[in-house]
Structures are given as C-alpha cells and as structure tokens.
Design a protein that fits this description.
With 422 residues, this protein is an alpha+beta fold. It contains 14 helices and 12 strands. This is Phage portal protein.
Length: 422
Amino acid sequence: MKLFGKKQTRNREPTAKEGLQMLTTWQERYYAWDGKLYESDIVRACIRPKVKAIGKLVGKHIRDDPAGGLKVNPDARIRFLLEEPNPYMTGQMLQEKAANQLCLNNNAFILIIRDENGLPVQLYPVPCVYAEAVYDAGGHLYLKFQYRNGKSGTFAYEDIIHLRQDFNTDDVFGESPAKAISQMMDVIGTIDQGIIKAIKNSGIIRWLLKFNSSMRPEDIKKNVKSFVDDYLAIESETFGAAGVDSKAEAVRIEPKDYVPNAAQTDRTIERIQSFFNTNKKIVQSNYTEDEWTAYYEAEIEPVVVQMHGTYTVGLFTRKERGFGNKIVFEANNLQCASLTTKLAFQAMVDRGAMTPNEWRETMNMAPLVGGDEPIRRLDTQVVNLVETALKNMNTENCHATADIIKGILAVGKEGADGEDRH
C-alpha cells in the first residue's frame, strides 16, 4: 500500500548533495545501545512531555483581511486538513509523530499532497531513515528520502513542512544529536549491564573446600555435596553453622562485582535530562504552575512559533498570505494552572479579552450556547457609547450630545453599583 498516494518524484541530475542520517536507525557506533534512542526508557521519558504538549496544539486557519475583517477557520478545506490530515491519523497524532522525530533527530518532515490544482489535500509524516538535499541545475532544492523498507522518494522542498532544531552549520538540516548524546547513552548501557551481571554473579560459587590430602574426583564431589546438604541447604538442621575436620578447609569467596552507586547513575540521568532541556519534575508530572510555564516557554513555544511559519508557507501561496491567510497553533497552557489563577481570568471575560467558552475550557467545562461571543461589563460598555457619541458630535448637536453623555454616565454608574452589590 502506498502511504503517500501519488508521489511526484523528480529525477534530475543534482549539482550538490547534503545528507542526514537519522538516529532512529542503527549505526555502527551505537551498537552498545542499538542506536535507537526511542528504545531507551530514559530518552522516551524525557521527550514524552514535549511530544504530548505539541500533540495538544490546536491548529487554526486565520484570515486577517483589512477588507473582510478577522475570520477564524473561514475555509472548511483547510480546517479539515488540520483536523484530519490523512485517512490514517488525526492532527493530534500527526503532530505527536512529527514531534517525536524532531526530538530524536532534530529534524521532522511532513509531506504535503496536492491535487491537480495545486491545493493541499493531505499531510503525511515522512518515516525516513535517511534524508538528502539535492539541487537541480536550476538551483531548486529537493529532498530525497530513504524509507525503512529500502525504497526512496524525492520531493520538492516547497512540498515539505520541515521542522528542525539545533540549526547551526548545515544549510538545510538541523544538527544531528548523535555526537552529543552517544557517550551518555553508552554510560547508561554500561551501568545497566553491570547491574545485570552483578545479579547473575550472585549465584556463582561462594565456598571453596580445600582438601589436605589427595582424593579421587568422585570423592571430592561426594564430600562437597555432603557439605552443601548439611550446611548450605535451607532445610539444614545446623542453622547455618558449619564444621570441618583437619582433612578439609572451608574458605568463603566474596564476589567483587562493581556496581555504580546511585549518585553516579542519577548524575548521568540528569545530564540526559538536561540535554533534552527537561528535569525530573517535568518527567514525572510533579511540577508547579510556574515550573511548567518556564518549561513551556523554553522548550515548546519555540516549536509552536516554528510551526506557525512552516505550516503557513507550506499551505498557502504568497498571494494567499498577502490576503492575511495564516496557520496558528493554540495551546491551552492554562490547563495546568491553579484554580486561583483560573478564577482570576474572570476579569478577562468581563472585559471581552476572553470569551466565556474559552474560560470554561480552562475549567474543563462544556461550552455554552452563545458563549463564543465576547461580553463586557456595563461600565466598560459606557466607555464605548461615550466614544461613539463624541465622534458624532458637531456644532449643531453639541448640547443634545452633552445631555446624552450625561445620561449614559448616570446609567453606567447605576449598573456598576448594582454589579458590585451583587
């Protein structure tokens, strides 16, 4: 089955190439931990909060046209594309899959499938193990992907939504985290293997019987078995006390297995968490409101800003962007806020900065009919009425306008007093 449907591959002679090896596939230097970061419980725990947060982003089509005003999701085609990007996954699933690739490889690719008119109709994450930048004779950029099944595909760069981190020396791709994290992963693998070997070695020989006279092999085995049955067996009647005559000497052997202490292990894990810009509280969901806000602004918000731009450029032409079309991703970061903070946002609702349904969403409450319309307190409405009256005032109606403004202020004062009493 072709996951991408019709793929418009380009077979042209490249003039230059740049390659990116994905960390999610095996490489020789990573044999100690198979080179698969996602199979590490520490790495998966580090990136999961970021992946889940990006998956919860809600994509919206905004059209901010001075002639037509601000509209949210004016085009049903774009709204369905963001909510249901392809027949196999929802928008949330696609965003999580892309976020996983971004965290593991510092690069994530989303392919835009277009119809015969050039309009985007589907979005697919690209599950590649290798990506290569290819330039044709005209200098146009294409990306050649190699998939896990051994097949490959080449697509124009304008048909790719490309997310990247650690964008430094390479012109196209984000820097691979391989060199930075490989040594730490080797340390974790060595520690785990050492603990396993120490447990296995706990069952080896711990006693040595030295016989002072020559004995046949079968007699040695017989005496050793008798010593084990009499003194080392659980059902022994000697209660752990052993006694031997002058013919043999019992020597206890202490295994010398090295197991790193907990402090060394914790420091290594902390280094990996720092590499992914997280900490123990975030990983274990034991954070406060301020701690999550700091993590969101440092680690998640830059990706959100990047998604705004890459989705907008990929889904809209330059002319469409000129008419105010753009894609934004909203994050309800107030879900983890304290109840006191959520209740304080009631003032935002009174002043029309938030709609009632937006505020109810932070409280995990169902929306209300008509709750998408902003409301204002009476005292704030008075300001608007006074401004309107002043704009329409002239030399002919100045006295009448003054009387109207006095009446408005009197009514507004009574309404405000009534609200305060309630």
